[in-house]
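Rotation project, supervised by the postdoc (A.L.). Task for the rotation student: set up a whole-complex structure prediction and record inputs and outputs verbatim in this book. Inputs entered:
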Amino acid sequence: MSETKKYPAPATNPETAAFWDAAKQGKFMIKRCTACGEAHYFPRAICPFCYSDKTVWEESSGEATIYTYSLMRKSPTGPYAIGYVTLKEGPSLQTNFVDCDLEKLKIGQKVKVVFKPTDGAPLPFFTPA
Amino acid sequence: MTIKGKAYIAGIFEHPTRHAPDKSTAQLHAEVAKGAIEDAGLSKDDVDGYFCAGDAPGGAWPMVDYLGLNTKKLRHVDSTETGGCSYIIHLGHAAEAIAAGKCSIALITLAGKPRTGAMPPRAAGAEADFEMAYGATTHNAYGMCAMRHMHDYGTTSEQLAWIKVAASHHAQYNPHAMLKDVVTVEDVLNSPMISDPLHRMDCCVVSDGGGALIVTTPEIAKSLKKPLVRLIGHGEAMKGPRGGKDLDLTYSAGIWSGPRAFEEAGITPKDIKYASIYDSFTITVLMQLEDLGFCKKGEGGKFVADGNLISGVGKLPFNTDGGGLCSNHPVNRGGMTKILEAVRQLRGEAHPKVQVQNCDLAIAHGTGGLLGVRHAASTAILERV
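Outputs recorded:
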């Protein structure tokens, strides 16, 4: 993954603005429901599991393991690796893997969050821990 | 309340084109509508229900106007959009509307030209800011499913390749198929890697074209001249990462739509003589066969190997037109063509080299969206009467 690859700036909205504000501080946030105790990602105002509106922001450790991945070899912007990681806190999320040898990714591998700049708030990616 | 036996497919048409630089998308819709109406032996002025999805330019009301449908008679419309399986869902919805007396002759159309024109962008979902930048495409979204399926169940690229091999055996008899050459497992494995672990030959074609259906009441179907094919079971379902809890990309929403359809039909996968299974990629077929209950979860690789999907050779003939892997994939949406070949099999109108003998029960199943991200699934079980 090239360091100069241009990523789109998140549009953001009132429901997710706090996530992007935290991202600007280098913090990776998830949402947790104080009614059922479940964490989720991407963040919603209403818990997708129990429909409580008692969801709160929580800073994630950013530590995760690779659930799956695929190295896209035919792309006009060069090869890139998409995948899902499962956070230490529980939720799984879609991401790209960066700053590493994409040929050496493995399911189960430990990774950590890293932010990449856009014209707006930075975007979270994952790289081998 | 059931739709079992309440609706018949009386007209079908598949556009022969795979490359249509000289036609408009609306024109292709009109051509397939005309074809299906004529196949049924009806007139456009008989149509009182119209179904279309996101590929119809402008949606339902511009299409109804463009197609010149009889607006004094038209009394039911449905523009449910669930990607490639929209048309299988439309078939179920048409049966519901017919059973409820809301319409009696329903037209369903699909058409478009991704090969010769830009595809309209899909409206962004709530996840856009959290996913769009990561570049999920069909290839890598299905690649992620295949990668995890291999990890969890030991599925191999050789096993996936057998699905393409079977499709190519069928496509050689389809004069309209884009890829008519019979290929081997080695050919698939030697084709370039597109998005790990999927090779080029694990991927379907990109084609222009379309197809249409006429769905009607038992009484009207029996008054027409075509062999009688009816819908006896239908299911629909959706699946997504759901907040990231218990992520499992090794199964699709077919795990829910399939049993719903089989239960309504009162049959089991063992009763099916022919299967149209959406084949956007080889892994799509393998996962759906498992989800529908043709084999246990994780045993799809073993099930599809050694020609088991080849008509006249294996136990479950599939996609005898060559499917999306070899024949066509109009508008990057495979649901319509899955129904069309199932009806041809039940009518006895498939190519003699691939026609299944005594084909009285068939399944048409598809997904829409991205199997590795969010998707819909729909299952239709069809019977020759």
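Student's summary: Chain A is about 5% helix and 40% strand.
Supervisor addendum: Chain A has a mean pLDDT of 95.
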